Structure prediction request, 57 residues.
Amino acid sequence: MDWVKIWTFFFFLSLGLFAALTVAVAIGGFFNIRSLFKDLSEARRGHGPRSDSRTEV
Prediction:
């Protein structure tokens, strides 16, 4: 294999990996923001946050 084929393969491999990670981060961010709005709406109704990580002052 010559250098052009090696770097072309590496470029498309990196591009595919970047695209896959972009989709994964976008999906994770969507669900994170959705759970944030659920927590905010529950807190507005007076139920408090869902998680057990409340800090006592």
User: Anything to note?
Assistant: The helical segments are 3-44. The chain has one helix and no strands.
